[in-house]
């Protein structure tokens, strides 16, 4: 009786598969680049120190760090903290972001082109109910 050799990938490929298929737990000894960026951010430290009743998105919107892809009107930002960002942060963050906004008459980014069917039906039903009265 002879023994037939079994084909394998080889020692190095098997070692690579074994080494990279195990869960890596770097977080126990060192932080990830995203965690380093968060820990190095003045905005995150300010959020952690001051935000008791706001979530992160609300906090960022209130300080004009996040917002819609368009200029906001004076009424929309009347209670926002416009002085939070320094001039350098404003130039580095807000100005490049504002350059991505569409022109005021450009509605190509808006997905809704027509009135939805449910809105038309609702309108017709309300008008019919008003006429019956």
Shape: extended
Compressed to H and E, one letter per element, the order equals HHHHHH
Biggest sheet descriptor:
none
Secondary-structure class: mainly alpha
Distance between the termini: 99 Å
pLDDT < 50 stretches: none
- Which bin fits the share of residues in helices? 40-55%
Instruction: Give the overall pLDDT as a whole number.
Output: 77
Strand fraction: under 5%
Secondary structure layout:
Elements: H1 11-21, H2 33-39, H3 42-50, H4 56-62, H5 87-98, H6 117-132
What descriptors fit this protein?
133 residues; 47% helix
What can you tell me about this protein's structure?
With 133 residues, this protein is mainly α. Helices cover 47% and strands 0% of the residues. The mean pLDDT is 77.
Brief synopsis:
This protein is mostly helical. It has helices at 11-21, 33-39, 42-50, 56-62, 87-98, 117-132.
């Amino acid at each position: 009786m002879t023994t037939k050799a079994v084909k394998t990938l080889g020692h190095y490929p098997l070692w690579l598969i074994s080494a990279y298929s195990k869960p890596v737990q770097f977080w126990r000894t060192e932080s990830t680049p995203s965690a380093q960026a968060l820990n190095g951010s003045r905005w995150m430290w300010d959020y952690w120190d001051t935000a008791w009743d706001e979530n992160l998105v609300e906090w960022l919107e209130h300080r004009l760090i996040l917002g819609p892809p368009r200029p906001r009107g004076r009424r929309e930002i009347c209670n926002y903290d416009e002085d939070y960002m320094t001039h350098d942060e404003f130039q580095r963050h807000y100005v490049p972001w504002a350059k991505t906004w569409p022109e005021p008459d450009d509605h190509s980014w808006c997905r809704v082109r027509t009135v939805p069917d449910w809105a038309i039906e609702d309108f017709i039903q309300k008008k019919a109910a008003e006429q019956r009265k």
